[in-house]
Every structure is written in C-alpha cells, then in structure tokens.
Amino acid sequence: MANNNENIEANVSSWMPDVLDNGFHMCYVSQGIDYSGNVRCTIIRKKARQNTERGVLYIHGFSDYFFQEEMANRFIEQGYNFYAADLRKYGRSFTQGQKMFQVRSLEEYFLDIQAGIDMMKKDGNCNIVLLGHSTGGLISSLYMQCMPDPAIKVLVLNSPFLAWNLPKWMVRFGIPLLKKIAGPFPNMKIKGDRTTNYASTLAKHLGGEWSYNTAWKPDVMPDVDAAWIRAIDNGQKRLRQGEINVPILLLHSDKSAKQGDTIEKFRMSDAVLNVDSIAEAGRLLGPNVEDATIKDGLHDLVLSRKNVRDEVYNTIFRWLEKFI
Fold first, then answer.
1. pLDDT for the residue 2
2. Is 106 left (phi over 0), alpha (psi -120 to 50) or beta?
3. Distance of CA 92 to the CA centre of its chain
4. What is the C-alpha to C-alpha distance for residues 296 and 305, in angstroms, rounded to an integer?
5. Rounded (10°) CA dihedral 109, 113, 116, 117
6. What is the pLDDT of residues 121-165, one digit of tens each?
7. Is the Cβ–Cβ distance between 193 and 243 less than 8 Å?
C-alpha cells in the first residue's frame, strides 16, 4: 500500500511560478470527482529566507482567493514559511464548467486544508499556524474541531463567519426553511447583496487600495444557493457542539457597517458581519481564546488602511510569541 506522501505526490502537479510572481509558487492538487465533476485545490507557497520549521497556512473567505501578498511577506519577515490554499471552485482552483464557490457540506474543504498541511510537513514545517478569514475562519475552526492535524499548534481567526448577520426572524424562520428547500432543490438561487459597498473599501478601481482579479473576487457578491446556506448553518451549529483544544486568537473590528452608512463608515468597519456576534460565538470555541478588537478594521483586517493593519500584525505576532 502506498504511504501518505506517495498518495499526495500522485495527485499533485509540479510547482510552478504563481500569478503573484515575486517568489510565490503554486501547484494543483487533484481532489477527485464530486457532484460538479473533477475538482482540485491550489496550494501557494513562499518560503522564508532562512531555514525554519515554522509555517502558516492561510484559508480565504467566500467570493475570495489568496492575493494578500503583504500579509505573506509580513509572516516571512518574522521567520515563517507562508502557504495559502485556494479552495476547490475558488480562484486558481476554478475550472471551466464549475459553479464558482459551490459546496454542499463544509467538510468537503477539509481535504483541501489537509493537502496544504501535508505539503507543509513534507517541506519540514512541524509548528504550523492555521489562519482563516471569514468563511475560511469557519471552515478552519470546523477542521480543528473535527480532524485537527497535530502539527497545527494554534488557530488565528480574522473576522470568522461564526454567526449569521441577519435579522432574528430570518435566522429563526428563514434559514430553516431554506435548509429544507436545499434537499430537493440544492441549486436554488438565493439573492445576495447587490451593492459594491464592500468592494469599494478594497478595490483600487473603486477608490480602495488593492488590486486583484475581479473574476475571482467580484465587486458584487454572487448569489449563493440553498445548499450553501445549509452548509454554512450546519457548520455554525456543529461548532457549538464541541471544543477546539489549541490556543485561538480571535480578531475582529470594533464596529459593523450597514446599508445606508456613509462610505467613510464602511472604510472603518466590518461591512459583512456583525462584530458582536463574532465575539460572542468566538469566545465559546475552546478553553483558550484571546479576543482582540481592532479599531477601525475592515472585514478582512489585513486589507485595512496601513496604521490599522500594522496593529493587526503587531497583535498577531505578539500573541504567536507565546506559543511558537
């Protein structure tokens, strides 16, 4: 029987230069066939200048992919090898004929995370930081609850999607109804936010600071389907039924923005999730959770304006010194 490394190598493409260039490389990992055909994930890496056994694996959020080059370089400057995963049907991993971001259960992504961890261990990383943003924070938390790899020493969460940012009546009645519909009609579209409010806090062409591929990270949030709603709600509920046993750093903004707020408010707030709900749910994830509030932070805290993201990195690296 082939060992684990042989199984990994059989499904992995060669490393090749990444679209980010500047020392980043990527490879594809075949993940078999699901309800939409052949699927793959993508692992991106950039190694530290010196030999080190410390590494970080980044898991992006919904309607997103890894493009945060500055974040990678900040970890590299601190002596970490940096890795990221573009999950199946996202970003670099998307293939023709697929529906972007489609998922029936968040457990599908566990194999993508494990592929990144296995590659990191093959490269000699035995002290790993798992870092998840938004939906990636929810997925990473579930992974750490259900099948944690012992090489992962800590979990860092950047505005994790641990609770719905919806009216109470919608959470109580609307979400259960949509979950029932997802059984016979998993692909039924659910209309989302059609504004560019959040994108305007990020994208350079809309007045923000960052350039990225808008085919992979659209200005307008795409419609989801009923099965996606079911997967998210089931994942959030499952997290409440167990504990994560590694130390957790829970990061979020100090305030949320809502429809009707000024663009200035949007550029100093979480424009996607409710920060109070993040904090409430996040503090229950395990016995060792440090809750860090970042003043004027965006939903993706590392894309906030420079003085804010400097505070984000200072908070992360001060905390990591205690454990790795």
1. 39
2. alpha
3. 15
4. 9
5. -150
6. 999 999 999 999 999 999 999 999 999 999 999 999 999 999 999
7. no
